[in-house]
Amino acid sequence: MRAATVRAQAKINLYLRVTGRESTGYHHLETLFCRIDLADGITVRLTPAARTLDCAGPALPRGGLGPVAENLAWRAALAYSGVARWPAGFEIEIEKQIPVGAGLGGGSADAGGVLRVLNALNPRPIAEETLLGLARELGADVPFLTHGSTTLAHAWRRGDLWQEFPPLPERTCLLVVPPVAVTTRDAYAWLDEARRWTTETVSLEPISRPFREPRSWDDVRSKAHNDFEAVIFPRHQVIEETCRILEEVARRYEGGFARMSGSGSAVFAILPVPTTPADLSIAVPTGARTLVTRTSTRVEAVQPID
């Protein structure tokens, strides 16, 4: 097999607390990850020596994704080849469908997708724990989005430890992405400022007991929370307005709820009925993008290309 592809699914954070920061600057968190059906397309082709990365698609920002060397998918491929001593060359193509800078894990999904595809192509695949070790070095969302079977999980520390849960029944996931992007770096800096964390004063709250397995969407709704909202809403009122609009939509349905995902800017509403934007008749902020997808009950498999 010389080429393969995968749909690299996005994620939402159904619950998110930042529990402290290490003196190194890394933050600890506690979150409930959920994969959704919205996905980027990842294709990897083996080459004799050349190494390239090309990105296209409707979610690609007008200015592109920045320097290739900083791209998580590129860094994932280099990390993999360094550990596996294979392959000599590769061509990576990314079809962007996941909005960038929206807290949906698009870059992390791409990195996880590249790791999974390379391991599927490798005649001598590396062990899963080694693969997840590479993912841990790339970011808090990457291990979850590299795992080949988990769609719902409680994660903690740097996102590298998690407890897998059985998937809940599919639900409509209405996404609205306001016309602003929030960098993860800025979001954490604002949180550090609000909590007065410095490199000298570090608070780390240990996770001493496991998150109770959610048995239903009502269990999730009762815990839905995002620490970043407190520092991002005052700085980006359009995100706060979007969340208020989706909360109003969610209240129309028993069991519905809305939250911001990750460090924003995307806001999601989990709804118990199939729907379209036209059905909802909602007025989103000017320039906002509305997407309807579903929560996932399975991880998309890597597919060989003949």
Tally the beta strands. Answer: 12
Helical stretch tally: 9
The stretches of 5 or more residues where confidence is low (pLDDT under 50) are none
- The dominant shape is globular
Secondary-structure element pattern, one letter each: EEEHEHHHEEEHHEHHEEHEE
What is the CA-atom radius of gyration, in angstroms?
19 Å
* Whole-number mean pLDDT: 92
The proportion of residues forming helix, as a percent range, comes to 25-40%
Share of β-strand residues: 25-35%
The structure class reads alpha+beta
The largest sheet is: 8 strands, mixed
Q: Report the end-to-end length measured between terminal Cα atoms.
A: 7 Å
Structure at a glance:
By secondary structure, the protein is an alpha+beta fold. Helices cover 27% and strands 29% of the residues. The model has no long low-confidence stretch (mean pLDDT 92).
